[in-house]
């Protein structure tokens, strides 16, 4: 059946036919939206990748691979990255890097971190990661993914075959030809989750240890960096003055707060001793009290007015 | 403080009029109440011009037509009645017993001596909400047709009835087609038939009341002890039983005009008198009181006369008790105080100086004696209604002295006499048909009710704070009907338990030595009473009861004693109890032991933890935060077994303050894991009966709490331990306030901080608070459980933090006004529903105020919750977030004055606005049902079916889960391979089978059904809202969010969308060949419902049995 609408904005609409399951026997059509990938920050693979949105929530790498295989045949699909996977790992990295180091690193604007250093950090962090509790995470409903294909030509072929599918009404089938275990959700999936909630303690211990190794190293690095920076003028010729090189321990902070509180208390006490001492104070206090009284009265009146506006507040229930 | 005149002058001229208003109002009492009552009066004022239009004209016509009635000489009574029937078809409403057939008593008719309009029509004190508006006109029977001896043997009342019949005859001709004419017993007093005229236009009645001339009958002969109904011919005065009711009726019938004068004088001397009368009328009405005997016999008339008399007398040394310069609300309060403080049931309450002796005043019922007019104002009251009135006055008085709560609404707005909301035990009893004992001309039913009251009150003793017996009123009847229709002969019984005595199973009577007392006790209790010897050597008369709950005990006693004294068969159908409906919904009496067991297990756990020696930090506190450990779960806590995964109870552990925690949030979380691992190892080394499992949270961020430790005892009790780190809070707080950070990071930190505070600060406090109050109020725990059951059955629970539901229940115990604290779960539950129905959470915060109960020092550390600051805070939230995306309900507790820790989870309001509105709607319809059904809601079927059956048709989609599959899913063993879904891993599957027999499954904090729901809810947060009751509820409801059904296309829309144009385009193609319209339509998409449902079915797999879509 020919379609009137095969595009939506700059997306091509790829309808996927979804066979019914016992709980919902109706077979349905899912709409996937495809376009050439044009990210704001270009990467070398952009020319041969596609951007998908509205991916089904139960998508896996296998699902997407089989979908593209059915569109353009085998051998052209390279990889898929889902939105939740694409989340910059640098966020977690930044969290992991001791806070001071991050701040100081941004100070040294020109400092370029070599790519391999980044990769090294990522590897370290991967080891410190705790085991996942879901063996098959659900995708966000309406989420996106980026598919990398073999070459530029494949991209064109995919788009062409999408248009063809629209025209002929022969839609690719979701999850067709996949091995049974890769489609499993439901009871086994939840069971696995319950089991994965309690990982092997050795694994966890190793991850925690690895974390602290990295953490301690980085903290040391940061301290050294801070020390170095103390004597180095930045591009405008200013030298950043930092305190003592060490961190301000929270204990010290607590002490400072304590001291502040004591000081305030002292001042309060002194003030109290001198209140009711002069006549003008008495007079002023009285004035304040009166003002307070008037304020309260007005407030009450306002509240009653507000109650009146709401119906039924003054009508006894029957 | 003293101030010199000079100073005063200075302040004076700076003041405005507002100040003097404010001062005069605030000095004497809280202003709000005064302003509110003023508003209430303004709102309630009755529009006489409009509603009673033409009444004066009607009254004039009435007078003329009565005056025109032909007079006649005395003729025998029976002849007169016959003649009237023959001429006009009117049957003379003689009071029972009617005049004997052979009576030679004679009746005459001559023109009435006077006409007078009395009552609230003349004093203009009617209010809008009154049930019926009546204008009373008295018609004085002339002296010449009466004889002095007429006070004897109902003779006066025969004449009075004849007068009423004559009026009816005349009026039915005069007002034919204009008004409907009936007879009614004035104030349900069978002695006083009255003609009632209801104009076809207008919503009011005119009552024509024949009455005796002022002071015609000698009052000294009408004392309470005089017996005026004398049967037979003997004249021995002493032989006649006293007829106080008859005597008072006779006196009252001649006192209309004197009381009119009393009221007029009060109105003149005290400007606020009328308004105070109206307040009194509203107060009485909300409590079901009225002048009629079936409504307690204390109405507006009695109230205003009492107040008028108190303005003259009643104080010390015969001075006036009330000052005429008081304002209406003060007059009202003072009168309430008078009623609360005076025990007019035990001792006659005498106003003014009496001349006669006390014996002439004393009666068995309540006495409020007006000495100058020698009348007992309370003569229509029964002792039951006397007690009730006094209780109401006491409760209101207590309320008016409590400045921390809203005084106004409970006093005047709430409908108080709803038996289902008021009494712990309601029952109804049909009067046996052969019951014939009627004393002193009162109705048979009234006498019966009074007797029931007296018997029950004595039998229940201090178990009951209040025993109320209520009988129906007398019906009206048409003048042409030969006497009255049979009235409803049911007696409603309401009993209010005393929590401290209600569960007693053994009653001790007097010791055997006190012969007289013992004999009395034995006579009252019959065979039930037996002599028993007790440990302390005393030998007492004793009663043993077998019931296990207060309601059962009470029912047992009532059934027994009614059978003994009133010959009501024990299991008679005429006696119905309305309590069973709710009791069965919240478990068994043994549940208390289960809760105590859980608590004991926790104490063992605490000891085990504190006993660990090699912990790097010293344990400061171990705080439970699980509902099982505060007596608040629907099902009593049950330990795990090989068949049931143990359900861990949450506990948080606090260590001494330490500088060793790393200065980084993520590092703190990892350090906690290391810590937990250490505790786990130490525990399982120290105790052989403990296994520990380190579990991972479903955390999205590294800075969140990442892990917990499940500690499982071999007996199946499990705890889930999380560690508190004081540095974490400091760091989060600092990050939240750090202006140099990104906004989204700060919001994230704020959410984490709120989660942290909820988990480690508020929940431990909450746990402690609820536990304390469940021991203080025995009915609190079952009320909470019943309420949770309600939230469950309406599939609201998945949206409400369990602690919030507990707070809702606690609230009505802390602020029960206008009632006392509930002492049974059913009452507590229904009152929470009432509260929820009326709670306007959009503009009112809920303040849990424990100030009146916290007398122990530990509570002083908690800041007192201030209602006005809570209101300010809510206002600020509503201004900041008018769409209520962040805060919906505001519930301020002493532990959390900010009010959001119990109503937001993870930065999202829970419940959300939609769900909160649904809660209100459900509570409203529930209260409506309760209102309609009355006490019958307590019947087993009614209570359950009407209140606890969900309206599944409200949901767009229903997911029916497979219970068997869920159960299987809930059992996961440590030896299970998490990846055994992969075929090449499943080779070891059968080997595992052997090892796992008899093994305990892994702890399960969240039931699989709830796990699935949570996954679905996060995945489809945009388009769908899911509803589930208890965690294992196998029917999940869902509704489509109407706000996100159709929108223009962009990347990253939440939910599954299909192009609109596509669908419409198809349709258009079919209909015609015309081209599609404008381009901009092309970018519209709508929620692809079918695709979403297909996804849901795939996610649920075999767990979802079927998906039912509304309308399909």
TrEMBL record, chain A:
Protein name: Ribosomal RNA-processing protein 7
UniProt cross-references to Gene3D superfamilies, sorted A to Z: 6.10.250.1770
BP GO terms, sorted: ribosomal small subunit assembly; rRNA processing
CDD domains in UniProt: dRRM_Rrp7p, RRP7_Rrp7p
Domain Rrp7 RRM-like N-terminal: 11-176
Domain Ribosomal RNA-processing protein 7 C-terminal: 196-317
Family assignment from sequence similarity: Belongs to the RRP7 family.
Region (Disordered): 235-256
Pfam families in the cross-refs: RRM_Rrp7, RRP7
Record's GO cellular component terms: CURI complex; UTP-C complex
UniProtKB/TrEMBL annotation, chain B:
Localization terms from the record: Nucleus, Nucleolus
Alphabetized UniProt keyword annotations: Nucleus, Ribonucleoprotein, Ribosome biogenesis, RNA-binding, rRNA processing
Domain of life: Eukaryota
Keyword Nucleus: yes
Ranges of residues in domain Nrap protein: 135-269, 272-415, 423-567, 589-774, 777-935, 952-1107
Annotated InterPro entries: NOL6/Upt22, Nrap_D1, Nrap_D2, Nrap_D3, Nrap_D4, Nrap_D5, Nrap_D6
The keyword Ribonucleoprotein is annotated on this UniProt entry: yes
Gene Ontology, cellular component aspect: CURI complex; small-subunit processome; UTP-C complex
Gene Ontology molecular function terms on file: RNA binding
Pfam family, one: Nrap
Record-level GO BP terms: rRNA processing; tRNA export from nucleus
Primary location: nucleus
Recorded family membership: Belongs to the NRAP family.
Protein name as catalogued: U3 small nucleolar RNA-associated protein 22
Organism from which the protein derives: Coniochaeta pulveracea
